[in-house]
Prior knowledge:
The structure holds 2 protein chains of 2 kinds. Chain A is of the alpha+beta class. Among the domains of chain A are: 123-157 and 170-225, Double Stranded RNA Binding Domain; 233-466, no CATH class. Chain A is built from 10 helices and 22 strands. In chain A, strands 8, 9, 10, 13, 19, 20 and 21 form a 7-stranded mixed sheet that branches. A 6-stranded antiparallel sheet of chain A has the order 3-2-1-4-5-6. A 5-stranded mixed beta barrel of chain A has the order 7-14-15-17-22. Chain A is globular, with a radius of gyration of 24 Å. Chain A starts with 11 loop residues before the first helix and ends with a strand. By secondary structure, chain B is α+β, with helices and mostly antiparallel strands. Chain B has 2 domains: 5-220, 2-Layer Sandwich (PmbA/TldD fold), CATH 3.30.2290.10; 225-438, no CATH class. In chain B, the strands form 3 sheets. In chain B, strands 1, 2, 3, 4, 5, 6 and 7 form a 7-stranded antiparallel sheet that branches. In chain B, α3 (125-139) runs parallel beside α4. The longest helix of chain B has 17 residues, at 5-21. The radius of gyration of chain B is 24 Å and the shape is globular. The model of chain B has no long low-confidence stretch (mean pLDDT 96). At the A-B interface, β2, β3, α2, α3 and β4 of A face β2, β3, α2, β4 and β7 of B. β3 of chain A pairs parallel with β2 (45-63) of chain B.
Amino acid sequence: MSNFFEKSDLSRNNAENIISDTLKKCDDGELYLENSISENILLDDNKIKNSSYSSDLGFGFRAISNEIVAYSHSNEISKNSLKQSSENLKSTLKSAKGTYNHSISKSNKKYYENINPIEQKTLSSKIEILNKVNEYLRSKDNNIKQVTANFNGEQKSIEIIRSGGETLSDVRPLIRFNVSVMLEKNGRKESGVYGIGGRQSYDSYLKEDNWKNVCDEALRIASVNLESKPAPAGEMKVVLGPGWPAILIHEAIGHGLEGDFNRKKTSAFHDLMGQKVASEDVTIVDDGTIDNRRGSLTIDDEGTPTEKTVLIENGILKNFMQDRLNARLMNTRSTGSGRRENYRHIVLPRMRNTMMLNGKQTQDEMIKSVDKGIFAVSFGGGQVDITSGKFVFNCTEAYEIVNGKIGSPIKGATLIGDGPSILKEVSMVGNDMMLDPGIGTCGKAGQGVPVGVAQPSILINRMTVGGTKL
Amino acid sequence: MVKDQEYLKKKASYCLDLSKKLGASDTSVIVNNSISETVNFRNKKLDESNRSDDLGIYITTYIGKKKSSISSSNLLNDNLNILIKKCIETTKNTPEDEFNSLPDKDLLAEEVKDLNLYDESHIENNDKIEYLKRLENSASDDKKIVNTESSFTENKSNFILANSDGFCDGYKSSSFNASSITVAKDEKSMERDYEYTSKCHLKDIKDAENLGKIAADHSIRKLNPKKIGSEKINIIFDKRIAKGILNTFASAISSSVITRGTSFLKDKINQKIFSDSINIFDKPDIMKGLGSRSFDAEGVKNETLKLVEQGILKHYLIDTYNGKKLNLKSNGRCGGASNLYIDNGKISYKDLLNSNSKSLYITETIGHGSNIVTGDYSVGATGFLIENGEFKYPINEITVAGNFKEMFQNITLANDLEFNYSTNSPTMMIEGMIVAGK
């Protein structure tokens, strides 16, 4: 764990006094300290293109009075700097007359080890694997024109000091291994990307020749795309494969169930609590407690232990995801969903690992039931307009379905739907739930945080496919 | 106050000296400091204040043709000592790349041009609050507006770029930004839209009342949208979407994707990739320009480039590393384009709307639907149906798709270019795109 006061003229005692003094008439707030180190090794175009290391240190000081949040952050952990931040917060909250809420739940559970993944594997052994990846792929297929592979490792240490000196801390490892290939055949270029990762050491993912599976999958996706034909345009049935396609759930439903949008009544779901929002086969949870997953957290960025939050149960809307601020203003409790990208940003209610749970049908039954539609297996990114409820995501591997059979692969196309109504269009839920491989980053208000998703195969009765073939 | 040049230079030269002492043959360093103060309003009340004070240092060390880099926000010498040592160690263990080097000395900028990028005015939070009050009163004037969120940010930054070939320069810049997001509601629908303004100088930003009214009008006109059928149709992209298409073009001519072969515009120099009338410029020396700069992220001087002339691609955006790979000199585009714009077309905005009996006017797109490897484009969209030059009704939950290779050849522009952002385009019509709806 980092000792944030070690090389500073600011002692822990000084800091605690400034915090308690600044927050005395506030409803909530804390000093958040963060020290993170990260490493990126990139192979591209047959060479190690980049080896970089970064260390980031800073604090964010937050004070909340009623609905108003005052925030100030700096890289300099010093008496002067913290006092300046304190003055800044006080000037915004001149008329604060609240009572500080000291209550915060506690738990001894931990969902990942306290390790530094960067130091657990030497630079030269990481470079060696990247070179092997390059050779392996280029020897596998003559059409390969480009291979990019990289390792990203990170260790983030945080400490939260609340008014009165209560202290909470966490050390979070995170790694990611990614491979992308580009194929060229008869003048046509297509690419394929695959990656794995989570909150463990590199070797937990790369044992034996596991990296080959990642290469094979990236190459397989690119090869499928090389044979793809233009995607259809218009409304049709869509079967989603298990695992990563659950970003549909994340975009279409997840964001609309975050506390802030519902407190502000800008979400299409804000007045639907307790109502039927999906067909009864649909149960969706947001779970921060799965061991070593990318979206898991021992405590959130306000110090609240994470949990498994049931969002939709058998089609009924049960809970929103809450941080402390929105929970207080909506008279409920934090679900341990308060997150921030780093000390530069304010806390927002965010998703962790968002999962649709198993139903009873098989993927086969779904495909067989479709006369004309598409089968979407993998996706790039997605996005949602919370207010209108419209969301999109981009297929990176998809096939047409003709008369109950999977047909030719189709080119990447955007799918668009309506969040509140899409769940009612889910007519079959599969029994093959899968977690994604650990690659998701969710963006909200300019802040990116690691997340996970999971789902079984599902059949959606009606979605608009944004292809070019009328 | 943002750190002065003297402090930043001292840090930079400390790093250059230490790197050399520890065995670097070449080094480059960027040190920057940025201070912003933001006030946010929601529904006519103060919602959030945010002050940020960011320090950063980025060091790249070379040992011959080996290279590695580090970055940190902790500028204490104790920390820098550890990091530079680590950087040199990593450099030694990183394989050689024959194209790694500092920029050619004769390409380095000789001066910092006075582009009027810094306005020292400071606007106190109380004055920001006054501006936002006026903005939100104006934005919520219409009863259909049920939610407003607005923000005012003042930013001041300063940086130094130094390298072991003796380059050492930098300058201050400022920006003042205001934005407003409004939510409009009627019996059947709820819609959100926005407007924003961003300028180097405080006195140039949009008037608060005007900004609020535009944001409100944008949301209200989207109410009660319809979904239309799938068809091939001419699309008119609002300026704020057209500039995004221009940015995609810029990323497809970046020398890094050209050398890697992962762009649909590879090997297209001196070929006609746009309609005849299209001229695209990148001009780094616009006074008070949001993308203006005296030199690029490596210290290389940059001149105005006519990237596309009469539809023909003339230049890639080249940095030192990829330039050496392409056997071309850097044109000062490390970090991308500066102030990028398409020149005006020949017809008025009104005539553009009138040029078809039926077209779609797109005001917002969502999704990451631009593939620069294949040129395929497919995004979610909202906008309006236009018939005989008239806005008929709002539309949503559609996608717009095509391929840039064909789209670029089918562009007609209005003559309504304005310089509001770092990338600017007139209103843009692209013929024959595919819309997927019902």
